[in-house]
């Protein structure tokens, strides 16, 4: 049996409606999007990377086609964004400079090691990828807006960009792979 890092009775399942993994306790019938208390997060992270990121599709476990990278991001929209609304706010009225200040605060917390980008994206990102800790999955050149793609491809795995301005809003990008 594969060690997931989850406490006894818990397992990882996949939601077909949201196309996301979730946690289910077969004894209590409880389900949740966040890992339960007492989870070994490092073991869970390794398990999720191996079994729930599409790695099974690639025999070498690389989980990527040639030239593709994987990134997470934290998006803060402003009133001049392409679609100034999100799951967090129906009508975003903040200025671009206000959005920049919000993102600078998030950037400072991340760089100081107070919180990880993905954990912050879950509650603070204006992108629907927030429910996946900002994970955008694998993408190649020409699949993202140029303003986003260029800085993303310039990052090395583990690096986080400075503030990136795109038609969608302002981003912090973390290259995962």
From TrEMBL:
EC supergroup of this enzyme: isomerase
Domain of life: Eukaryota
SMART domains: WW
Listed Pfam families: Rotamase (PF00639), WW (PF00397)
SUPFAM superfamilies per the UniProt record, alphabetical: FKBP-like, WW domain
E.C. code: 5.2.1.8
Keyword Isomerase in record: yes
Chain ranges of the PpiC domain: 66-177
Name by which UniProt lists this protein: Peptidyl-prolyl cis-trans isomerase
């Amino acid at each position: 049996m594969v060690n997931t890092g989850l406490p006894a009775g818990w397992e990882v399942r996949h939601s077909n409606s949201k196309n996301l993994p979730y946690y289910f306790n077969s004894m209590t019938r409880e389900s949740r999007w966040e890992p339960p208390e007492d989870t070994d997060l490092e073991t869970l992270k390794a398990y999720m990377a191996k079994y729930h990121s599409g790695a099974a599709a690639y025999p070498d476990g690389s989980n990527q086609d040639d030239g593709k990278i994987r990134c997470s991001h934290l998006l803060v929209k402003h009133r001049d964004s392409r679609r100034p609304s999100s799951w967090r706010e129906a009508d975003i009225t903040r200025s671009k400079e206000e959005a920049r200040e919000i993102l600078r605060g998030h950037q400072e917390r991340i760089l100081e090691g107070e919180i990880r980008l993905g954990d912050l994206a879950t509650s603070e990102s204006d992108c629907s990828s927030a429910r996946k800790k900002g994970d955008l999955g694998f993408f190649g050149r020409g699949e993202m807006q140029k303003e986003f793609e260029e800085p993303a491809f310039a990052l090395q795995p583990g690096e986080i960009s400075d503030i990136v301005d795109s038609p969608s809003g302002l981003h912090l990008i973390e290259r995962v792979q």
